[in-house]
Structure prediction request, 528 residues.
Amino acid sequence: MYPFCVPGVHTWSPALRCFLRGFASSDLPVIHLPRRTQQYLESRDQKRAGPLPTPRAGRLFISSRRRELNQFSGETRGLWEAAAALVSRGWKHRLSRGDYFTITRQREQRPWPETEETFLSLGLDPRVVSALETLHITAPSWIQRQGIPALLQGRNVLCASETGSGKTLLYVLPIVHRLLAEDGEGSPDPRSLIVVPSRELGQQVTSVAQSVCAQLGLIVRFVGGGRGRKAIEQPLRFGPLDILVATPGALLKALKWDKVNLSALHFVVLDEADTLFDETFCELIDGILTRAQIASQASDLQGLVRKAQLAVIGATFPRGVAKILSKVTDLGSIDTIKSKRLHFLMSHIQQMFKKLKGSDKLSELLELLKRRAEESSGTGTLVFCNSSGTVNWLGYLLDDHGIKHARLHGQMPADRRSGIFDTFQNGQCNVLVCTDIASRGLDSLRVDTVVNYDFPPTLEDYLHRAGRVGRIGSESKGIVVSFVTHKWDVELVQKIETAARKRSSLPGLESRIKTPVNSSDLIKEQKV
Prediction:
């Protein structure tokens, strides 16, 4: 027996191995090791090499640097089994820097249930359907199939659906249908009102509404703040006005100046309600709704003293929604339509989390942007920061490295903000450095990469940022890359990873929409 075939020979001292090399003859005595010693040496060698890979069910779901923490899509755990270990479990320790994990894409595109329903079968006016066909929109999404009939029947609706699911057309189409059926009588007062939290979203909603109304003779105008009194008064001064899109601050100023009257409203829509009902806007929304007459039942929509139908639209809802709405309407008149995938991580988007030191984030970002520029052309990248100061600082550094980009944040003057997102959408630059002002409702079909340079402060913000990719109509698959630096970031990442491994919704969000239902027991909930 050749001596170097003995298990554990590589652990022998160099002198002993050198001595044995002198014996190459066949009469070399055989060295017998006890079986227990051989088992010990074999087990030690196996531990050093790592655990042997075992066959798993399905495709790789969570991939990490440590193979033993990987999870496959077909893995399930029994009720009494221990929970899977988290990759991010030890990320609060400084030695975890450089670790990472990826929630891989499980679908090639956003889930789109097959259906034979059309917009015409939902009860929409044929003229509205024809306008949609000219825009090459033929099949309604799930949330549109649920929400449009409810609005056409005159019910108030509280609609919660994941980002990018087609909520804008959900309320625009019933508004146009209703306006075509009613005689406007040439009144200069708006017949429908859409309230949005930002100028950028307002301009986008206005564009969508105008594209539908272009062939139907309906007038759509937008009013936003930040440009002085004249800019608010100008759109309200001349001619009939069918649909008014407005930001809360500008609209409330116009109401106080008696430049607009809400008595002729048929519809009131609150878009991105999770933002409109937070501390920033809640008082403004309260002031606007108390000046409008909101219907509590379908009969209120008819007669000489007509009231407005209400639609509250969003991806998540704050706890104050019931308190404000109870002042203007009967909560029992509101139907809640909720997507069953609400507050879940999107399965068609790849999501990567990297634990980094703060000083390493810039180099990681530069490497990522240069790699994306080489790999793809014509697609966009959104880089999210938590403050306007970080946006400006990061923008200066990107200038130094010759990376063409645009910047967008709420501290910019209105005249500078105007058109920045359109510049990005039109492809004049492929990188937009921004705050969460660009994460709410903006349609970003050309975006294929979202980078959380600063990890978002809440799980709601993470869902909205991630929702900028993989939207309906987008051709790119989408990837989200998050840099994790602080201990409070790690806590959110652990919640995201746990929800992903359990295939459950993100914790702490479900109560946001159920609170009005449980507290009043009045709102009816319609679930799939």
